[in-house]
């Protein structure tokens, strides 16, 4: 995988393009023949879609990047990074972790990759703790209801 010194941060992914800017990227891809458009044009459009605040756009951006990853080995490093960001944004944390772990295997000393990996892992941990807390709350609620019903039956 080739090394690129600058990659956008996760915060950069939350700065949406204006609809007109995204449309320019889309038209570029269409003008170049859609699926036959240059990898760079499709890549730019995919990144614009991932930056969107609309889930369908983000999912389309992920699909386009996945296609680029499969057909262009020299762009895989960038695709993994952007796929991690896209999956993170749509709360697909398992996939985000898979992508960032693969990237980390190739670039363990890259600070941006390390930061992204830590952000994904922290989010997974927070979601796990939240899920456990919700589960414990539900169990406590059910136990309370069972206790109340049991007491009412004894009376």
From TrEMBL:
InterPro entries given in the database record: Fis1, Fis1_cytosol, Fis1_TPR_C, Fis1_TPR_N, TPR-like_helical_dom_sf
SUPFAM superfamilies: TPR-like (SSF48452)
Compartmental location: Mitochondrion outer membrane
Membrane topology term: Single-pass membrane protein
Predominant location category: mitochondrion
CDD domains the UniProt entry points to: Fis1
Keywords recorded for this protein, A-Z: Membrane, Mitochondrion, Mitochondrion outer membrane, Transmembrane, Transmembrane helix
Ranges that cross the membrane: 132-152
Example GO BP: mitochondrial fission
GO cellular component: mitochondrial outer membrane; peroxisomal membrane
Coiled-coil stretches: none
Domain observations: The C-terminus is required for mitochondrial localization, while the N-terminus is necessary for mitochondrial fission.
Biological role: Has a role in mitochondrial fission.
Family per record: Belongs to the FIS1 family.
Protein's recorded name: Mitochondrial fission 1 protein
Organism expressing this protein natively: Arxiozyma heterogenica
């Amino acid at each position: 995988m080739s090394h690129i010194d600058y990659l956008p941060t996760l915060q950069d992914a939350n700065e949406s393009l204006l609809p007109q800017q995204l449309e320019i990227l889309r038209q570029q891809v269409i003008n170049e023949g859609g699926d036959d458009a240059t990898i760079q044009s499709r890549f730019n459009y995919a990144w614009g879609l991932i930056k969107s605040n609309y889930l369908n756009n983000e999912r389309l951006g992920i699909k386009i990047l996945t296609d680029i990853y499969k057909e262009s080995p020299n762009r895989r490093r960038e695709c993994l990074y952007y796929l991690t960001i896209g999956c993170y944004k749509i709360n697909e944390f398992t996939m985000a972790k898979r992508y960032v772990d693969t990237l980390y295997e190739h670039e363990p000393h890259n600070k941006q990759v390390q930061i992204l990996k830590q952000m994904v892992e922290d989010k997974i941990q927070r979601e796990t703790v939240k899920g456990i807390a919700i589960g414990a709350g539900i169990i406590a609620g059910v136990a309370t209801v069972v206790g109340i019903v049991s007491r009412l039956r004894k009376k």
